[in-house]
């Protein structure tokens, strides 16, 4: 096990860890701002994630400790639980609360978490914690939930216990991810396909802009409202429930129904991005990284020009990527206005790419990005403790 966590658990609790689990973070390869428009996204699990080591105790308490945070908690076993301030441990506590509310008897546990997901990078560390805790509880107490049910529990923890609005993509990706494969997920029906995504001699570069994103929530809600306005206008002539119910050709025929130019641009991005996901699945399945990279660049351009959720930091990363022959493609990923970009980079050239990007970005923006190397990894699972 990475990082010798078994020894750290013993140092922390003066006993051996009885069980160990891992859940990854995720990136969305393509299909941005689609989840609330009834369309397709293409996330993949990464090789960074959350480790959870557990041993039962007979003291009727849950002990939450992390190697990432000084804050820790000891909470008595109860028949119901409430959120306890803003501590990180509320994410696993929320999972325990859900299992308990469903009638499962969850007894005392000593738990140690460690995450190597870069903090603040927008790679779904919260979903990783929620899923690994739900998965572990299901295993330890034979609760009988399917993996999809665990995904829904994890989402409920985020929405109802933590009070944070999110879709289901993050939890789904970290639960169902497979090595060297992406997921094409319909966010409305939850139907999905697994797409072979062997990157060959390329790796996934994850680039954190290191920009504060204080306006994301308000801008996000604004985009949701604009999409709803576009849908209302198109529904005057088309029988649709979501923008992604139509393709680019149908949109081109009916876009005149949307009077507001800004709203029309938002809808154009959504419809065309949904089509790009379908094309991307075909190109990845055919090991055609060159054309997949072109789709990544087209996605970023659309998010910059039509959806207007990029920014100078994300644009600088993609601008540099386009000049580097060792990069197949790059784009912003996530909500935008900062956060992360991703790029497909030849593994042999990764260090050179990271150094040159660092210099280009720092000269243009004024401070350095953080650049990480990852592969497409497995979803949540059990780790050996011996």
UniProtKB/TrEMBL annotation:
For the site Transition state stabilizer, which positions are given? 26
Q: What is its EC number?
A: 2.7.1.6
**Gene3D superfamilies, per database record:** 3.30.230.10, GHMP kinase, C-terminal domain
Q: Where in the cell is it found?
A: Cytoplasm
- One Pfam family this sequence matches: GHMP_kinases_N
> Which residues does ATP bind?
66, 120-126
Q: What class of enzyme is it?
A: transferase
UniProt GO molecular function: galactokinase activity
Q: Which residues does the annotation say bind Mg(2+)?
A: 126, 158
The chain positions of domain Galactokinase N-terminal read 8-56
The GHMP kinase N-terminal domain extends over: 90-177
Residue positions annotated to bind substrate are 32-35, 220
Coiled-coil region list? none
Task: Tell me the pathway.
Answer: Carbohydrate metabolism; galactose metabolism
Q: Residues in the active site?
A: 170
What is the protein's known function?
Catalyzes the transfer of the gamma-phosphate of ATP to D-galactose to form alpha-D-galactose-1-phosphate (Gal-1-P).
- Supply the name of the protein: Galactokinase
Tell me what organism the protein belongs to.
Mucilaginibacter antarcticus
């Amino acid at each position: 096990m990475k990082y010798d966590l078994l020894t750290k658990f013993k140092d922390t609790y003066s006993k051996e860890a009885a069980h160990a689990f891992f859940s990854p973070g995720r990136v969305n390869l393509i299909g941005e701002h689609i989840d609330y428009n009834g369309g397709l996204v293409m996330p993949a699990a990464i090789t960074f994630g959350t480790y959870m080591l557990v041993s039962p105790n007979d003291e009727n308490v849950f002990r939450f400790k992390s190697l990432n945070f000084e804050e820790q908690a000891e909470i008595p076993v109860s028949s119901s639980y409430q959120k306890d301030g803003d501590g990180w441990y509320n994410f696993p506590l929320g999972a325990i609360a859900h299992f308990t509310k469903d009638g499962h008897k969850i007894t005392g546990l000593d738990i140690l978490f460690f995450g190597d997901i870069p903090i603040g990078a927008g790679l779904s560390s919260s979903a990783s914690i929620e899923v690994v805790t739900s998965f572990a509880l299901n295993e330890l107490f034979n609760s009988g939930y399917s993996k999809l049910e665990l995904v829904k529990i994890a989402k409920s923890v985020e929405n109802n216990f933590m009070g944070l609005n999110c879709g289901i993509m993050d939890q789904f990706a970290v639960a169902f991810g497979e090595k060297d494969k992406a997921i094409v997920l319909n966010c409305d029906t939850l139907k999905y396909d697994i797409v072979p995504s062997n990157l060959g001699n390329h790796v996934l570069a994850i680039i954190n802009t290191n920009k504060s994103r204080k306006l994301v929530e308000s801008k996000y809600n604004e985009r949701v409202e604009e999409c709803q306005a576009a849908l209302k206008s198109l529904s005057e002539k088309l029988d649709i429930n979501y923008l992604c119910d139509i393709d680019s050709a149908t949109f081109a025929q009916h876009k005149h129904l949307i009077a507001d130019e800004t709203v029309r641009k938002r809808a154009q991005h959504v419809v065309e991005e949904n089509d790009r996901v379908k094309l991307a699945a075909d190109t990845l399945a055919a090991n055609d990284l060159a054309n997949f990279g072109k789709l990544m660049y087209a996605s970023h351009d659309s998010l910059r020009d039509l959806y207007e959720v990029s920014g100078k930091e994300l644009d600088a990363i993609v601008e540099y990527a386009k000049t580097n022959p060792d990069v197949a493609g790059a784009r912003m990923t996530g909500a935008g206005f900062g956060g992360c970009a991703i790029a497909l980079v030849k593994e042999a050239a990764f260090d050179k790419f990271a150094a040159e990007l660092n210099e280009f970005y720092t000269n243009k923006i004024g401070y350095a990005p953080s650049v990480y190397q990852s592969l497409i990894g497995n979803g949540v699972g059990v780790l050996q403790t011996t």
